[in-house]
Amino acid sequence: MLAQLAAHEGFKDKGLAKITLIKALEHLYDINAHMRAYAVIVDCLNDNIAAFYEQFGFESLTKESSRARKFLPMKTVQLLFDK
User: Fold this and answer.
1) Average pLDDT score over the chain
2) pLDDT tens digits for 24-68?
3) Which strands sit side by side in the sheet containing 67-73, from one edge to the other?
4) Residue at 31 is within a domain
5) CA distance 43 to 11
6) Per residue in 13-30, pLDDT tens?
7) What is the pLDDT of residue 35?
8) Domain for residue 66, yes or no?
9) What percent of the chain shows pLDDT beyond 70?
10) Residue 5: is its pLDDT beyond 80?
11) Within a domain: 2
12) In this predicted structure, what is the pLDDT of residue 83?
């Protein structure tokens, strides 16, 4: 499960969340070689955050009110980083 990604207001819209997510997925890919996992999970506090993760392939797992839980299968992560 990924913790929430956030950027200070002065650094919004500079691509830091995207870079942080990609680096986190890369790290999880490396760890998955030793400790297998089925998916990466994130909790989204609102629809804007959910839309951010959806653009990277995260799918809905559950939704309650404006909060959603998304997942990205490790097989998809492997496609990103297989060398």
Assistant:
1) 90
2) 999 999 999 999 999 999 999 999 899 999 999 999 999 988 789
3) 39-44, 67-73, 59-64
4) yes
5) 22
6) 888 889 999 999 999 999
7) 93
8) yes
9) 99
10) no
11) no
12) 65
Instruction: Supply the range of the domain harboring residue 21.
Output: 9-81
Q: How far apart are CA 7 and CA 23, in angstroms?
A: 15
Domain-located, residue 17? yes
* Segment holding 28, helix H or strand E: helix 16-32
For residue 22, which of 47, 55, 46, 68 has the smallest C-alpha distance?
Answer: 55
- The whole-number pLDDT of residue 4 equals 76
Q: Under DSSP, is residue 68 helix (H, G, I), strand (E, B) or coil? A: strand
Total domains, the chain = 1
Amino acid residing at 56: F
In whole angstroms, give the CA distance from residue 30 to residue 23. Answer: 11
Output the domain CATH number for residue 22: 3.40.630.30
Q: What is the C-alpha to C-alpha distance for residues 43 and 36, in angstroms, rounded to an integer?
A: 21
* Residue located via tokens 């070689």: 33
